[in-house]
Structure formats: C-alpha cells, structure tokens
Amino acid sequence: MGHIDVTDRYQSLARTPFGRLLVKNLGLPDPPRLERWTPGAPVVDGTVVLGGAAGGRLANPVQRQLKGLDVAAVGALDTGRTAGERAKALVFDAAEIRDVAGLASLREFFTPLMRRLAPNSRALVLGTPPERASEPAAAVAQRSLEGFTRSLAKELRAGGTAQLVYVAPGAEESLTSTLAFLLSPRSAYVSGQVVRVGNTDTAIDAGGAIATYDRHQPLAGRVVLVTGAARGIGASMARVLHRDGATVVGLDVPALASDLQALSREIGGDSLTLDVTAPDAPQ
C-alpha cells in the first residue's frame, strides 16, 4: 500500500541491534512480525497437519477442500530425532466428540506439536454446534471446545492464531472459504474466535449456478460501503477490500472530499461526501 504505520516503524526499530537492546533492558513490548497476505501468495506456505477424534465427519471433506486450495495435509510430522520439519497449521476434527472423556484426544493431538510450530502458525478446531448435538453429554463436550480453543490461542506464540469452527451437519462441503481465510495470513489479527458454518452458505450466482470460490478475490461481485474512507484506517480498509475484488463506495465528510475522490480514482470505486452525524443526514 505504500504506507507504514506507527506499529510498523516500532517493529522495524525493535529489530535493529540498538532496538533489541532497548526492548530487552527497558522491558518494552516485542511484537512478532506478522505475515501479510499478498496477491498470488499460497493459502498456506508450509505443512498442514490434519487430525481428528474417532469417527470424525469432517476430516475427509476438509482434506478434499484443502486440496482444491492447493494445500496438502499430512497426518503427522516426521518424528525422527533429526527431523526439523515444522507445522504451519494444525487442523483437528472434534465434531464427533460425544463426552468429556473424548476431549482428551485434543490434548493428545496438540501437545506434541506445539513445540514444532512455525512462526505465524494457525490452529483450527472443528466441531458440531452444541445445539445440534445428539445428546446432552455431546452438547457439553462440544461447548467445551470454546474454552479449549481460547486457551490454545493464548498459548500460541510468534504470531500464531487459533479458532473454533462449528460446522452444522450438512455443511461439510461448505468450508472452502472459511479454511482459506483462517489458515492464511489474511487472518493475522483474528484469534480465539468462534466461527459458525451452516448448510446454507453455498453462494449462487445470477444464473442460478453454484458460484466458484475465488481465493484471490473472494469479494468479487460484492459492493462494500466504507465510512471514514478518505484517510487512515478507512482508506486502508477500502484498498484491501478492493484488492479482494469488492467494488468500494467510500464515504466521508465534505471537508475531506478531495482525499476521498483521489482514493476512489485509485481503486476504481465510487465516493459519497456526507456527514452522517448531521441532523438532516439520511437515516
């Protein structure tokens, strides 16, 4: 974007010899360098380890959809003494855990791999919505996945993130866009969240056909209104949304009309100059 914010400048300083000395001696924050997605980059640049509890209904659909994203998943890392392979992402199918005892499979999968994660790693736990569980014990176990995932997110270091994805029965083949976002650098600032995927998420185009997901421009065909778009965060959001395929309509106050119009020309969008706080503003 040709823009460096305050955080980036601090990170650049913190990684110089003098900056590292200051960070260490003064106890200053030492933020990790987060990977940023760039057009044409792969969804995952590294190894994805896919596991699951016995009888899981999601592992096979996930593997197929990852393959469609040009992501290869393995069942385990090399455990040899000299093995240096690190995992870029961990995905665990917990959808068929039916009681509290079954939660032990999460520990058995994640614990050995936590020390073998690459920087900016991703961890996904896939479950069944508790309200769709077959019996009370299963509902309790599935609800427990939220606490586990948030604890896991706090344990991850070096820019790692963790999310819980509740997948409704019947939505097993509707995970492509969710996987592409949560496993990629696009989700660098998202962690410890609960995402729900229902069985009505399939996109239909104007001709009534199932729309093909474009991982490079996932917002193609969408129109997005961005308020405060003339400068700062709003302008950055507008550029990212445009990069991802959306037609952006930028809105800002009349005093910033020239900046707003310049941005609209840059990204091929439209602009509206309006003070939404004015008494006569549209409702």
Distance between the termini: 33 Å
Average pLDDT reading: 86
What is the fold named in CATH at topology level of the largest domain? Answer: Rossmann fold
Q: What portion of the residues fall into strands of 2 or more residues?
A: 15-25%
Estimated radius of gyration: 22 Å
CATH architecture tag of the largest domain: 3-Layer(aba) Sandwich
Q: How many strands appear in the DSSP assignment?
A: 9
SSE arrangement, N to C: HHEHEEHEHEHEEHEHE
CATH superfamily of the largest domain: NAD(P)-binding Rossmann-like Domain
Could you say which overall geometry the principal axes of the C-alpha atoms support? Answer: globular
Largest sheet: 6 strands, parallel
Structural class by sheet pairing and helices: alpha/beta
Number of domains: 2
> Which CATH first-tier class of the largest domain would you pick?
Alpha Beta
Binned, the helix content reads 25-40%
Number of helices: 8
- Poorly predicted residue ranges: 1-6
Account of the 3D structure:
The N terminus is likely disordered. The protein is 30% helix and 19% strand. The two termini are 33 Å apart. It contains eight helices and nine strands. The protein is of the alpha/beta class and 283 residues long.
Briefly summarize what is shown:
The protein folds into two domains: 47-197, NAD(P)-binding Rossmann-like Domain (Rossmann fold, 3-Layer(aba) Sandwich), CATH 3.40.50; 223-273.
List keywords for this structure.
single chain; 283 residues; alpha/beta; Rossmann fold; six-stranded parallel beta sheet; three-stranded parallel beta sheet; 8 helices; 30% helix; 19% strand; globular; disordered N terminus
